[in-house]
Amino acid sequence: MLDRRFIRSRSDDVRRAIADKGEKFDLDGFLELDERWRELVTETDGLKHRKNLLSEEIGRLKREGRDAGPQMEEVRALSARMEMLDGEAAKLEEELERAQSRIPNVPHSSVPVGHDSSANVEVRRSGEPPKLGFKPLPHWQVGEALGILDLQRASKIAGSGFILLKGLGAKLERALIKLMLDTHTNSHGYTEVWPPVLVKRECLFGTGQLPKLEDDMYLCEKDGIFLNPTAEVPITNMYRGETLEEAALPVKLVGYCPSFRREAGSYGKDTRGIVRVHQFDKVELVKLTTPETSYDELESLRDCAERILQLLGLTYRVMLLCSGDLSFAAAKCYDLEVWAPAEERWLEVSSCSNFESFQARRIGTRYRAAETRKPDYVHTLNGSGLALPRTLIGILENFQTPRGTVRIPEVLVPYMDGLEEIT
User: How many CB atoms lie within 10 A of CB 277?
Assistant: First the structure.
């Protein structure tokens, strides 16, 4: 959430951010409400000051044995006026807070302006799409032929859009998760956590999914809690309402967590295979940093996510998202995309984002500066390290052979008990 003083003082930047992100919000109406609220507060403060002066005068008059009736009458009138103003200000404050929560974060100055993904900028790529020497099969055909992916039985269990991995497919998924967790903890210095899958409404508000994306989430109505839509939600909210010491920053957390999305706005898209599913595994990287270091930490976080793709030997590219493709809460984001040769397209496996203080204001996470001891909001960052379904697609499609088998990336062979090929 943006600070209200920031919105007032940099209203042109906020107005531009709303337009560049493709959001709809009446900023002028918000500023008018805010101006009225400030007028009420100013008037109330003036009345309080007058009431205090009168109270002193009443006390003096009574001590002198003089009549304080006119002053007491004015105090009663002031109190009634203040009560009315306080009620109106409280209602305006609630309205302002609701509206304020719908104002998107302002993109960083380095973010290209554009309406959709066509304006995203390729920063670099690692490798080129491999020439397999034969017509590759799509991942779902490879997986089904090998008996490691069973979408038909998944549908029987939960409906369309769910995954059932069997045998070596399940083992490969587990191997990928373990590789990611081991790499990020042992080589990159992250602390592993195992968070709850269910999250409270205030957690989703805090990280920016609510109120905008409620239709895309699974709500357990009886208990009023949600299945987490992305692992950043439970991990970032670990420090909700806390104040950390600067010496404790950066906080670097990594966790495996299944995530759930209804994909309510994606009807008819990617209905074949596991590109777009309702339940998916994720290894998530989260950082809490000082404002001064957050953009250096974003580059480092992205490097950590890229390292998994490098270890797997997958061709990928790094995309800097334009303003119109940024999430509501992000100030800057890189997408990592792997090449899927059978579908001849790039698939996103990670989004590495800096939210600056936007999420921290909503969840109330601060740090205390070492020198000044003055509290300030942390900057929050996160990125998948990586998301599993599309990483699995990358392996099945890029490492398939003309014999219908799938080679195991060398780095995964120890995790697969020495198995080098799925036959």
Answer: 19
Torsion sign across C-alpha atoms 145, 150, 152, 153: positive
Q: Helix, strand or coil for residue 90?
A: helix
Pairing mode, strands 406-407 and 421-422? antiparallel
* DSSP states of 112-161: PP-SSGGG-EEEEEES-----SS-PPPHHHHHHHHTSB-HHHHHHHH-TT
Q: Which residues are catalytic?
A: 261, 276, 348, 351, 390
Delineate the domains of the chain, giving CATH numbers in brackets: 4-100 (1.10.287.40), 117-422 (3.30.930.10)
Q: How many CB atoms lie within 10 A of CB 272?
A: 12
Q: Roughly how many angstroms between the first and final C-alpha of the chain, as a whole number?
A: 51
Burial code (b: 16+ CB inside 10 Å, e: under 16) for 329-366 equals bbbbbbbbbbbbbbbeebbbbbbbbbbbbbbbbbbebb
What pLDDT does residue 130 have? 85
Q: Which of 204, 203, 184 is nearest to 193 (CA)?
A: 184
Structure confidence at residue 272 (pLDDT) = 87
Q: What is the DSSP letter of 167?
A: T
Burial class from Cβ neighbours inside 10 Å (0-12, 13-18, 19+) for residue 111 reads buried
pLDDT less than 50: residues of the chain: none
The helix (run of H) or strand (run of E) holding residue 54 is helix 27-63
Using alpha carbons, list the distances in angstroms from residue 124 to 2, 319, 327, 336.
Answer: 32, 8, 22, 10
- Computed from CA positions of residues 22, 212, 34, 32, in that sequence, does the dihedral angle turn out positive or negative? positive
